[in-house]
Amino acid sequence: MSLWTSAEAVVATGGRTTANWEARGVSIDTRTLKSGDLFVALEAARDGHDFVADALAKGAAAALVSRVPEGLPEDAPLLIVEDVQAGLEALGHAGRARTKAKVVSVTGSVGKTSTKEMLRQVLGGQGKTHAAEASYNNHWGVPLTLARMPRDADFAVIEIGMNHPGEIAPLARMARPHVAMVTIVAPAHLEAFESIEGIAREKASIFEGLEPRGTAIYNGDLPTSPILSETAARYAKRSISFGEAAPNHHRVTDVQVKDAATVAHLRAWRQPVLYKVAVPGRHFAVNAAAVLATVWALGLDRARALCDLGAWSPGAGRGHRERISLDIAQTDAWIELIDDSYNANPASMGAALEVLAGAEPRHDVGRVGKGRRIAYLGDMKELGPTARALHAGLADLPAMARIDRVHCVGPLMHALWKALPREKQGHWAEDVQSMQARLARDLDAGDVVLVKGSLSMGLGRLVDAIRKMRQGTDPS
């Protein structure tokens, strides 16, 4: 089934085409482009027009361009528009306009991608569900996701992010969700906002895009929850708060964080609900309550949703856990790795440290004898003038009492390293390379290891290095 014909794309964008074509997908990257995709030559870090010839050689159905690149054959299939970004947005608007899918939009300082993936899992059990494969949540990611919407989708999940004021509302109006959700408001991107209240107002602007009779779902446990509530009341037909505090419509009454799962109790519309997610973390259980609120708002099968939710676990870099075998001959000689290296801010850092604190190391299996809870933490970016204080403040989190050693990477994390008690201080390094060289000496069988930091710190390389310590076959 074609996603876009040349005639449909011309109508959507107001452009002109040099040939008749049909596209089965939409791509902005020749490295992941599939045969039959419409290649969109965005001008970002590099000018996409420089890659049009490569895209066509790899089987692209056509290319969306604002000019004809040099060296192309005269019959090259092109969709020519005045501005490529505007053309992509027009395709996004058209993709949204023609779908009959129920659309859910998600934003938040923490947890929007994992919640999007929970929604994908749960809604996918009740119909054909479309969502971006990655965190495509910005000015090009949202229209790209909408432009990729299958014609026969039943549900769509659109993640919306921001770095500066005024970004969320236009994307929400493009997505036109039936349900819009704010997972949490926390210190993040403070360099661009004067206060946490400013961040809350920006997050709440997702409700401006709601369809008539739409539902707003928001975290009711926050100091800034009144801002979310007031904005929801202006734009939503119905509002549902979630969290652990008593007034919430969907109230999490008990959370038990196990070593490999989280089990929780929920009161939802005066009914008790028992549910689980297949990963440790109180924050996952709380956001799962928002997912169940979405299921209720869309009138779906909650029993089936609970079963599908129980099978969900996060992807790489977002709390994924795995065992790394260190000895071919000794089957119990392994460490447990918690890969949360994709991003970080104070709220998500606190949640990850709580998961580490609840993990159970194993004793008498390594050279040290005592299994340890060990954290490798990298700088949290875009926190503005309070950045060093926010880093140092991590030392006072209750979870730190159960963590044995904290290694710190980056100039901002030096503030945490200095604030830690001496017995918890691991190593501090300016960059990942320096820390990476010590891994084999610092880790031992029986340890549970958390790796977390902002993406630009590159702590994913530490995760890769730990995985390369693997010997033999990992235990199940």
Q: Brief description of this entry?
A:
The protein is built from 16 helices and 22 strands. With 476 residues, it is of the alpha/beta class. It has three domains: 4-82, 3-Layer(aba) Sandwich (Udp-n-acetylmuramoylalanyl-d-glutamate--2,6- Diaminopimelate Ligase, Chain: A, domain 1), CATH 3.40.1390; 99-309, Mur-like, catalytic domain (UDP-N-acetylmuramoyl-L-alanine:D-glutamate ligase, 3-Layer(aba) Sandwich); 320-467, Alpha-Beta Complex (Protein-Tyrosine Phosphatase, Chain A).
Query: Mean of residue pLDDT?
Result: 93
By CATH, the topology of the largest domain is: UDP-N-acetylmuramoyl-L-alanine:D-glutamate ligase
Would you report the number of β strands?
A: 22
Distance between the termini: 40 Å
Per CATH, which architecture of the largest domain? Answer: 3-Layer(aba) Sandwich
Topology (elements, then pairings):
Blueprint: E1 4-5, H1 6-13, E2 16-17, E3 22-23, E4 25-27, E5 37-40, H2 52-57, E6 62-65, E7 78-80, H3 84-98, E8 102-107, H4 112-124, E9 129-131, H5 141-147, E10 155-159, H6 168-175, E11 179-182, H7 196-204, E12 215-219, H8 225-235, E13 238-243, E14 250-257, E15 262-268, E16 271-277, H9 282-297, H10 302-309, E17 320-325, E18 334-340, H11 346-358, E19 373-378, H12 387-392, E20 405-409, H13 413-419, E21 425-429, H14 432-436, H15 439-442, E22 448-452, H16 460-467
Parallel strand pairs: 4-5, 5-6, 6-7, 8-10, 8-11, 9-10, 11-12, 12-13, 13-14, 18-22, 19-20, 19-22, 20-21
Antiparallel strand pairs: 1-3, 2-7, 14-15, 15-16, 17-18
